[in-house]
């Protein structure tokens, strides 16, 4: 699959989006956007940390023009792993695989199936300002996805005046009533990774065959790579906000309302000023640390929400940089915003490494599998010799 022409197509599409204004106290914008808001949200993922499919046919290098920011984030995370993390993930072939997989959730978007679009699209973002619509703060978010979805739906039913009406013709994948599931997606993938580590540990300790261990390792690599996409999305401030593509609603500071802004931050700026250098950024990565309050069932979820809130708090900083010409991409002033964007890549890589490490650290042994392996071993040892 080639993404070679996709960014151009998306860019032109975003340019065509008409300006939309808030009709309620919180400017949701959803129903004034063409193409559908959710589609735009999804497209933005592809571009912002995108270009993944092009990039990582060779791992461990950086600086090519089409260098993928998503791939950079996954590689920065690899650079953070302590030496007692399973070493197989650092083999060249696995590094390459993990980097390549950073683009997988965006590749899914190329499939027109509504089921996948419905399930995958809202996983890439959360518009934190919209939590007000259901009288929640980020700290009050329930840690379970469908509990939140129900709360949001209940709020829409109880307070329809808070929400813009949805045009069914623009909502074929039925995602426009949603405000995004990014924190739940990240935590669910962390649980999947922990599960992979659990059965890997058990296969290794309790008599798994080489093929079983290799399969478990392959699963670890797959989940690590795919989930890296979503943690990377979270480090892009525009994936956490209603102001995802130009400021909306009240605009006392006169921030840009240009609907090329997201595309520019996605990849245009780096393409113009030079792709980020892995070898430079990796020097700013620290050894991974466990995230989430120990002993608290929702500790990881709270840490992920805090991570996203931190990026949301930088949305205005990003717009301010643009206003000051520091994201123009030419001249000394136009390059001044580059450290900010590179810093976001580092934050994404660091958070991802921390989450990978946490999953490994906390993965319990799979006792059901251990029992099965022990029974198999007993059967084999008691079988009469032929
Ligand atoms: Zn995405």
Outline the secondary-structure elements:
Layout lengths: L5 H10 L21 H12 L3 H4 L13 H12 L11 H10 L2 H5 L5 H7 L24 H14 L23 H24 L4 H25 L26 H13 L4 H4 L17 H14 L2 H9 L7 H4 L3 H25 L4 H16 L4
Helix pairs in contact: 1-2, 2-11, 4-5, 4-10, 4-16, 5-10, 9-10, 9-13, 9-16, 10-16
Structure characterization notes:
The protein is mostly helical and 386 residues long. It has one domain (6-375): P1 Nuclease. It contains 17 helices and no strands. The protein starts with 5 loop residues before the first helix and ends with a helix. It binds zinc ion.
Question: Summed up, what is this model?
Answer:
The chain has 386 residues and is mainly α. 54% of the residues lie in helices and 0% in strands.
List keywords for this structure.
disordered N terminus, binds zinc ion, 386 residues, P1 Nuclease, 17 helices, mainly alpha
Strand content: under 5%
What characterizes the major β-sheet? none
CATH topology: P1 Nuclease
Q: Could you list the spans in which at least 5 consecutive residues all have pLDDT below 50?
A: 1-29, 31-44, 46-67
Instruction: Name the CATH superfamily assignment.
Output: P1 Nuclease
The name of the CATH architecture is Orthogonal Bundle
Helix and strand element order: HHHHHHHHHHHHHHHHH
Helix/strand structural class: mainly alpha
CATH class: Mainly Alpha
Number of separate domains: 1
The first-to-last residue Cα distance is 51 Å
- Helix tally equals 17
Listed once per kind, the bound small molecules are: zinc ion
Rg, nearest Å: 22 Å
Shape: globular
Give the total of beta strands. Answer: 0
Average pLDDT for all residues: 84
Helix content: 40-55%
């Amino acid at each position: 699959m080639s993404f070679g022409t996709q960014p151009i197509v998306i860019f032109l599409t975003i340019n065509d989006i008409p300006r939309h204004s808030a009709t309620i106290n919180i400017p949701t914008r959803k129903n004034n956007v063409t193409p559908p808001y959710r589609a735009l949200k999804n497209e933005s993922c592809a571009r912002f940390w995108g270009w993944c499919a092009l990039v990582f046919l060779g791992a461990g290098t950086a600086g090519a023009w089409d260098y993928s920011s998503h791939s950079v984030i996954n590689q920065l995370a690899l650079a953070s792993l302590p030496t007692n993390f399973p070493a197989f993930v650092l083999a060249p072939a696995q590094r390459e695989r993990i980097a390549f997989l950073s683009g997988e959730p965006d590749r899914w978007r190329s499939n027109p199936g509504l089921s996948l679009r419905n399930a995958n699209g809202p996983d890439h973002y959360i518009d934190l300002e919209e939590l007000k619509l259901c009288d929640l703060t980020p700290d009050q978010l329930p840690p379970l996805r469908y509990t939140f979805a129900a709360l949001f739906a209940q709020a829409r039913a109880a307070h329809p005046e808070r929400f813009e009406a949805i045009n069914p013709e623009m909502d074929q994948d039925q995602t426009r009533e949603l405000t995004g599931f990014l924190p739940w997606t990240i935590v669910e993938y962390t649980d999947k990774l922990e599960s992979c580590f659990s059965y890997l540990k058990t296969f290794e300790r309790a008599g798994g065959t080489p093929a079983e261990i290799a399969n478990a390792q392959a699963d670890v690599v797959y989940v690590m790579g795919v989930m890296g996409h979503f943690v990377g999305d979270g480090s892009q401030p525009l994936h956490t906000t209603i102001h995802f593509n130009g400021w909306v609603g009240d605009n006392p500071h006169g921030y840009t309302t240009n609907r090329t802004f997201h595309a520019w931050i996605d990849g245009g700026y780096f393409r113009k000023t030079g792709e980020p250098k892995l070898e430079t950024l990796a020097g700013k990565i620290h050894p991974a640390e466990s995230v989430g309050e120990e002993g608290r069932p929702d500790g990881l979820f709270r840490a992920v929400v805090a991570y996203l809130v931190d990026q949301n708090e930088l949305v205005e900083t990003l717009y301010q940089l643009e206003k000051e010409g520091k994201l123009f991409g030419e001249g000394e002033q136009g390059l001044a915003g580059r450290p900010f964007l590179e810093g976001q890549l580092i934050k994404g890589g660091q958070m991802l490494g921390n989450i990978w490490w946490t999953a490994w650290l906390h993965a319990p042994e799979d006792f059901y599998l251990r029992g099965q392996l022990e029974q198999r071993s007993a059967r084999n040892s008691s079988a009469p010799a032929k």
